[in-house]
Amino acid sequence: MNPASPAPVVLVTGAARRLGREIALALAASGWRVAVHYRGSKEDATKTVADCAELAGAAASFCCELEDEAAVRDLLPQVVQHFDQVDAVVNNASTFEHDSAASFSFAALEKHMRSNTGAAIILAQALHAHVLARQASGAVTEPAGRFAVINLLDQKLWNPNPDFFSYTLSKAALEAANTLLAIALAPQVRVVGVAPGLTLTSHLLSDEKFQALHKLSPLGRSSSAADVVATVKFALENASITGTTLLVDGGQHLLKFERDFSLM
Q1: What angle do CA 258, 169, 243 make, to 5 degrees?
Q2: Residue 1 has what pLDDT?
Q3: What's the confidence (pLDDT) of residue 203?
C-alpha cells in the first residue's frame, strides 16, 4: 500500500460486543479505521468506537438490522460516506436461535438466512461495486488482493449435529457462498471463511462446563478469541487466499459431537 494513502477501512458487523469487539480492537491496533456495526447494543458500540479511535485515530458506529434488506443495502454506502472508502468487510454478526428438525419452520429459516447469509452476500456485493467504482475513478492503484470479505463460520459445518437447525443451514449456505463469491468477485475482492470452534462462553454454559468442553479437541483446547482474531488478520493481509475456509478450532471438527456444545 502507498505510504501516503489513508489508513484502510474495515466494516465489522456485530462489533459492539464479544468476538466482534475483539476483532475490531485488533484491527484498529494494526492501523485499520473501523466501522463498528451494531443492532441494539448502542452503549457497547460507543465504547468500542472510542477504544478503536484511541488505537487507530478514527472509528465510527453504524446501526443496522441485518434482517432488513433495504437497511443492509444502505449500510456500506453509509460507511463510504463517512470514511470516503471501505477496503474490507468482516461478517461476524450472527443470529443464533435454537430450533430442531422437529420444530423447524419457514419463519425460523428465513430469519437466519436473511441475517446470517443474505446480509453477508449483500455486503460483499456492495464492497465489490465500491471497488469497481474506485478503480474506474483511478482512486485504486494498489496490487490485486487488497480488498477482502471475511465470513465467520462454524466448525460444526465439518462436524454436523442437528441442533440449531436453521442456524446451521444458514452458515452452510454462507460457506457455499464463499466459493461462489470468490469466483464472481475476483479479481477485485477476495472472499475467505474463518470457522472457529467453541471460543466464548454464553448464558447457556456455566464456566466449569465451558472449560470442560473447550478441552474437547485433539489439541486439548479449542479456539480462543485471540486465535480467531489472528486468523482474521492473516486472511485480510494474505493477498493470495480466496475461496476457502480456515478452521481455527484446535481440531474439534475432527471429533464427533452428537449435540451442539451449548446443549451438551
Answers
A1: 105
A2: 45
A3: 73
Query: How many CA atoms are closer than 13 Å to the CA of 130, on its beta-carbon side?
Result: 27
What does the CA dihedral 34, 192, 93, 73 come to, rounded to 10 degrees?
Answer: 80
Q: What is the largest CA-CA distance in the chain?
A: 58
| pTM (predicted TM-score) | 0.95
Q: In the sheet that 244-248 helps form, which strands lie side by side, from edge to edge?
A: 59-63, 33-38, 9-12, 88-91, 147-152, 189-196, 244-248
Helices 119-137 and 165-184 cross at an angle (nearest 10°) of 20
Q: What angle do CA 233, 238, 239 make, to 5 degrees?
A: 135
Cell readout for 254 is 475432527
The whole-number average pLDDT for the span 125-143 is: 88
- pLDDT at 255 (0 to 100): 93
